[in-house]
């Protein structure tokens, strides 16, 4: 696969696909601009090469209609502030206004096209739409890791029409941390898997068991495993149809010599509510009408100990319902434990990323992914469609 620094982009029109799907509050203010900041190395490199930078992205799910609250206007404004230069926003992502703006571009100019998902053709991966987008650049750069697990016109379809295709620096970093590290980790390699359901993490668990030395399972999905081991888990989140799968995973881990750690105690309540009465109990003593909503202090101590000799730690999914204070201690303690470890630490995006930032430990983590869904697919051992498309382009160009 080619990266932007391996392609001649001097003075050229560089069409960059980023994932600027950032969270906005009710007043349409950006509440977290990390995805925009993560694009700066690629944009600055292109500007240093005197390129004309044309940015495409999606924001939210407007479902093929023009919805003003999903306009990229706040993103263009924030990017302009971060770059210290004007970023004009086209009225649409295709059509006359876009062509006029691009024709008037000087080298080192940046423009942003309006939300790709204002057109249903984007998510439908329409070849016609993809070819229109491809015409806007001499070189196409995909740096939208957060969208790389989707097959859309702007990241997969477009590669059939773009003259030259390559990936940006963010894509390189993400693929390096999740791909290369998974294939050749420094050992002991520990995976921490949490979150709500086994079904959402099943493929990742199966793939990771083949690669890790130790695996920590927390969060809601631990209860399906605990039930598979014969414990009564009250009304905790359990996927009964996956109990036999969980039992199989336990067996595979044992056969492979992978050390698997499950909670030994938990915080329970009758409901996952902020004012609920809570108790800390060993997992053998979960009341029939109560549910496990966080790992307990003994488990925190155990999991901490598991991490002490780790050289690589990969973490996806919180240890409890951390959005509610009463059930957040387990996740936040694990963030500190991971941050204080001497290992290479890699955190999947999404909820785990939110938890890390809430504790203020993000600078102590080696790498935090900008794409929850995409990084999970890499943990599952899948090839991302957008990455596959870039590989095919590189092969064709040879
Ligand atoms: P996921 O998207 O699968 O990583 O799940 C993240 C969600 O899992 C968070 O919103 C947590 O509140 C939730 N979660 C974590 N632990 C539990 C638990 N013990 N019971 C129910 N939900 C949980």
Tell me the Rg in angstroms.
Answer: 23 Å
CATH class of the largest domain: Alpha Beta
Which strand-content bin applies to the residues?
15-25%
What ranges have pLDDT less than 50 throughout 5 or more consecutive residues? none
- How many helix segments? 15
Largest sheet: 6 strands, parallel
What is the H-and-E element order? EHHEHEHEHHEEHEHEHHEEEEHEHEHEHH
Describe the overall structure.
With 398 residues, the chain is α/β, with parallel strands linked by helices. The chain folds into 2 domains: 4-170 and 384-397, Rossmann fold; 187-342, Phosphoglycerate kinase, N-terminal domain (Rossmann fold). The chain is 37% helix and 15% strand. It is built from 15 helices and 15 strands. The strands form 3 sheets. The chain has a 6-stranded parallel β-sheet with strand order 3-4-2-1-5-6, sandwiched between helices. A 6-stranded parallel β-sheet has the order 9-8-7-13-14-15, with helices on both faces. Strand 10 and strand 11 form a beta hairpin. Helix 8 (198-209) crosses helix 14, helix 9 (222-228) packs across helix 10 and helix 11 (297-307) runs parallel beside helix 12 (329-340). The longest helix is centred in the middle third of the chain and has 15 residues, at 169-183. The N and C termini lie close together (11 Å). 50% of the residues are buried. The mean pLDDT is 96. Bound molecules: adenosine monophosphate. Adenosine monophosphate (AMP) is lined by residues 195-197, 200, 219-220, 237, 292-293, 317-318, 320-321, 323, 350-351.
